[in-house]
């Protein structure tokens, strides 16, 4: 036979196999539908998570040689405190650490940016002149900062993002003047559209970090984050050791500022990901478990087809069908639903990816720019199709080989009078038990995350009814507000006019609302001096108006601030109850005098003690708090807090009208309830997001496992009809047969629960970073999961058990 004739015959046989496979799927759609849904759900969910994980963990950062970039900061030995460094320490690191080719700094901030008559609040940063050169980012239009431009006072230049440049009116943004915090700056450069730096969130405007004499000498002003580039072939460990030695030498030279301080040096990718790295790793683990469960389910479905098709294939073999012909037909029958399942997986993966990105709050998503354009690409699609094909061949070929082997040898495969082979039965039960165990692991993980989230959102934050608290930011910048008198007058007018709005019960001011987590100082009692390097740490908050009454913070002792506490009166402070407990061992707190590192030699007399408030992130230990009055310590970036039941949109409109009447150049932004701000915080997101995903995976795994358990029980009932007939003939009752099936299912579920519980106890320890208020082995979660899985196992076996009890002895014996 010629090659052309052989090729035509092969194509004809392939077309015939495809028609037969399609016809069989139409005649028995249940099995094919189960395979399609199993692959679609499993590979679709995996594709979505792999896409996000690839963008975060694998996709190269948009910088030159990103593996050599390191993020540096300071830490306090023996504590969890992490902070940026000071400008003089950055200069010393540059001069003495030779493991880095360059070190550059950035100080992120919110800028009031004026373009024409419009003022906007934008994210920005002060950066050292070589920051973009260190990253290897090329300016797409204009120029970069000159090498000495950050050392030149009055260098009023700016570099902006492509997004901001396109929003500026005119043909080109280059050369245009914008007001940054009231000071005119000329745009000299535009960044490429693809630029992002997650630690700066969605920063749009960059200006030179110009240090005055005080900043150059003050090592306590820790506001500069540092990025370094390792020398060629220099390992991070040796550079870190060198930098630690340099810092230790600096600590001996400046013990007040640096004693007990160490260096934190992380690869830039780790710093960009922050606490998202363990979350992504946990999600990848959950996906791996779901894929294993999916594989086990496919194996059970294929084995079901093996047993159901055995008589037919025995007949085909007896009529002369070759083993190769049968194998090819079975593989085609496996490939068709598998490829359909891959198509469904691609659709589910794309929809899931978009849904995941949409579920991330805006305030969190701006810190994840690497997810902006995430979506299923050619690589992920290729992996999905490849896995679907591999699974089809693997789980289709093994049963096919068994079928043709048994059929061709004249074995039991076609004998309908026998009961289920022990080896087949043991293998199927092992697969189901493994599925139950893996499902238990996912259920325990989702249960732990759910309890952790519940503990977090129910945490006592120290103030009442955050739903009724509306916060709005209104920062003051520019020459007009350089004096403390102007700042005080503006905010006093804003508070008094806001308090007079209909529906507003109280109005107050604070420089940073609870949950913000920054603004710290060290302190010492005047009557018990403490060396600066070991002074206790406290959060410093500047408040005004009726802040404590607005928030509902109780007064424990003494009083709060009054109108007479102004600059011409003695400096006074209010402290939190936790700070009072630090002072009480030396006597009463009220009346004590404190010196704060932030305010220099000023002495603040404590006039009151208020309840503790969660000023740090919700999942962090909140430090003690020192409150100062805005009337004595004016601040130009205050947040207005109102106790009201008016809708947020209406409050925002009224506040903008008030601020416009006071000064049209002052922006009002981030108007929201405090409750919403807390619910959309990174601390809540880092638990709610994986909880939802893990819950979806656990639900899908549970559904697949219950289907597998149901199929196994029903298959046993159908293949053991002769055995059941014998049992009934020997005196067994229908109830005993029902109990037999139910007991088998429950025992199988119990075995899976025990194995899965042990595995969950071992694996869940890796989740400690995202657990809050409970341990990884909390017995309540394991108990609920165990009871639930047993109940579902009994439910899944109920219909097969009823079917077993309805078997008639004469029918069973006749078969």
Derived from helix and strand composition plus strand pairing, the structural class reads alpha+beta
Strand order of the largest sheet: 3-4-9-6-8-7
Kindly estimate the percentage of residues that lie in beta strands according to DSSP.
15-25%
Radius of gyration: 34 Å
Q: N-to-C terminal Cα separation, in Å?
A: 48 Å
Alpha plus pi helix count: 25
| Shape category | elongated
| Residues in helix, % | 40-55%
Question: How would you characterize the overall build of this protein?
Answer:
The protein has 815 residues and is of the alpha+beta class. Helices cover 51% and strands 17% of the residues. The chain has 25 helices and 22 strands. The strands form two sheets. The protein has a six-stranded mixed barrel. It has a six-stranded mixed barrel with strand order 14-15-20-17-19-18. β1 and β2 (82-83) form a beta hairpin. α2 packs antiparallel against α13 (378-408) and α10 runs parallel beside α20 (682-719). The chain is elongated and about 105 Å long. The two termini are 48 Å apart.
């Amino acid at each position: 036979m010629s090659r052309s004739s052989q090729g035509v015959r092969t194509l004809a046989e392939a077309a015939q196999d495809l028609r037969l496979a399609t016809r069989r799927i139409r005649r028995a759609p249940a099995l094919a539908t189960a395979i399609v849904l199993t692959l679609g759900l499993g590979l679709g969910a995996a594709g979505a998570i792999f896409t996000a994980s690839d963008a975060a963990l694998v996709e190269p950062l948009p910088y030159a040689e990103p593996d050599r970039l390191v993020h540096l900061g300071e830490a306090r030995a023996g504590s969890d405190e992490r902070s940026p460094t000071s400008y003089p320490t950055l200069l010393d690191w540059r001069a003495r650490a030779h493991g880095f080719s360059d070190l550059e700094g950035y100080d992120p901030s919110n800028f009031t940016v004026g373009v024409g008559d419009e003022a906007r609040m934008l994210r920005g940063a002060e950066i050292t002149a070589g920051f973009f050169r260190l990253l290897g980012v090329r300016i797409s239009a204009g120029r970069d900062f000159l090498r000495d431009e950050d050392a030149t006072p009055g260098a009023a230049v700016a570099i902006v993002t492509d997004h901001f440049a396109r929003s500026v009116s005119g043909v080109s943004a280059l050369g245009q003047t914008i007001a940054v915090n009231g000071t005119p700056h000329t745009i000299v450069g535009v960044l490429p559209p693809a630029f992002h730096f997650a630690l700066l969130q969605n920063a749009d405007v960059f200006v030179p970090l110009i240090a005055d004499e005080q900043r150059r000498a003050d090592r306590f002003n820790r506001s500069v984050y540092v990025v370094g580039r390792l020398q060629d072939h220099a390992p991070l460990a040796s550079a870190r050791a060198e930098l630690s030695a340099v810092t230790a030498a600096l600590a001996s030279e400046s013990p007040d500022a640096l004693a007990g301080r160490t260096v934190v040096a992380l690869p830039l990718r780790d710093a960009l990901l922050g606490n998202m790295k363990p979350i992504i790793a946990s999600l990848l683990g959950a996906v791996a478990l779901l894929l294993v469960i999916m594989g086990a389910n496919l194996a059970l479905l294929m084995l079901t087809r093996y047993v159901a098709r055995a008589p037919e294939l025995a007949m085909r073999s007896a009529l002369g069908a070759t083993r190769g012909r049968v194998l090819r037909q079975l593989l085609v029958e496996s490939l068709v639903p598998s490829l359909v399942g891959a198509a469904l997986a691609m659709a589910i993966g794309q929809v899931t990816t978009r849904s995941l990105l949409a579920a991330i709050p805006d305030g969190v998503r701006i810190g994840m720019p690497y997810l902006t354009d995430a979506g299923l690409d050619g690589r992920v699609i290729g992996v999905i199709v490849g896995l679907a094909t591999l699974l089809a061949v693997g789980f289709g070929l093994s049963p096919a080989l068994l079928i043709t082997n048994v059929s061709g040898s004249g074995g039991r495969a076609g004998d309908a009078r026998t009961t289920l082979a022990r080896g087949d039965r043991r293998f199927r039960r092992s697969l189901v038990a493994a599925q139950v165990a893996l499902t238990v692991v996912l259920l325990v993980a989702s249960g732990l995350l759910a309890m952790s989230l519940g503990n977090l959102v129910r945490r006592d934050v120290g103030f009442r009814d955050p739903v009724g608290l509306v916060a709005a930011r209104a920062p003051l910048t520019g020459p007009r507000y350089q004096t403390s008198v102007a700042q005080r007058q503006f905010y006093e007018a804003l508070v008094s006019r806001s308090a007079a709005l209909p529906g507003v019960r109280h109005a107050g001011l604070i420089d940073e609302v609870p949950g913000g987590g920054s603004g710290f100082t060290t302190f010492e009692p005047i009557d018990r001096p403490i060396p600066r390097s070991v002074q206790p740490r406290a959060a410093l908050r500047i408040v005004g108006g009726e802040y404590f009454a607005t928030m509902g913070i109780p007064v424990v002792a003494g009083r709060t601030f009054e109108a007479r506490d102004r600059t011409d009166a003695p400096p006074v402070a209010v402290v939190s109850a936790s700070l009072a407990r630090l002072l009480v061992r030396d006597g009463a707190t009220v009346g004590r005098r404190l010196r704060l590192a932030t305010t220099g030699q000023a002495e603040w007399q404590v006039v009151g003690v208020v309840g503790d408030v969660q000023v740090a992130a919700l999942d962090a230990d909140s430090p003690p708090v020192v409150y100062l009055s805005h009337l004595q310590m004016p601040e130009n970036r205050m947040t207005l807090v109102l106790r009201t039941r008016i809708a947020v949109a209406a409050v925002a409109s009224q506040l903008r009208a008030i601020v416009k009447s006071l000064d049209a150049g002052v922006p009002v932004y981030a108007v929201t309830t405090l409750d919403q701000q807390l619910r959309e915080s990174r601390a809540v997101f880092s638990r709610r997001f994986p909880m939802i995903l893990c819950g979806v995976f656990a639900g899908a795994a549970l559904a697949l496992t219950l289907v597998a358990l149901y199929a196994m029980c029903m298959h046993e009932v159908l293949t053991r009809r002769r055995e059941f007939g014998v049992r009934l003939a020997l005196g067994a009752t229908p109830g005993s047969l029902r109990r037999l099936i139910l007991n088998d299912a429950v025992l199988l579920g119990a075995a899976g629960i025990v194995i899965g519980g042990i595995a969950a106890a071992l694996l869940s320890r890796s989740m400690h970073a995202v657990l809050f208020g409970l341990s990884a082995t909390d017995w309540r979660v394991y108990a609920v999961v165990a009871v639930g899985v047993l109940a579902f196992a009994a439910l899944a076996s109920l219909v097969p058990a009823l079917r077993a009890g309805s078997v008639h002895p004469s029918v069973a014996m006749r078969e």
